[in-house]
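Mods, move this if it's the wrong board.
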Amino acid sequence: YVFADSRYAALRRALEDGRFQALTNAACFAEFARVLDYPQFGLAPERREQALASYRRHAASVAATPAQPVPLPRCKDPDDQKFLELARDGQAACLVTSDKALLKLARRRRLAPLFRIVTPDAAVQALPE
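Not the wrong board. Structure tokens:
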């Protein structure tokens, strides 16, 4: 979302013009903010704040976990469990990720009635024209 990768420009445009809806919650947004601070990204503070503000504008906020949540498989990386929960709680059609631990769960039949886990490339290919 931040680095303007031309492969995913269509996905970002779809998000910004409302053809695709991103979801977030407090935990996932905090993770996004934390990752943007990684030194290897070298983002200036003002660029980081612009990215966070833009994402906040385009992502719908999902409320806390429902009283009777549908059980989910456990992700090998416990830090990624929050993304599965967000997709479930937001009733997402898909979870778009490049994370290998999450993509490994894409094969789980238990998730099929809830949402799909797809790569950004697959999400771009599935965009409505």
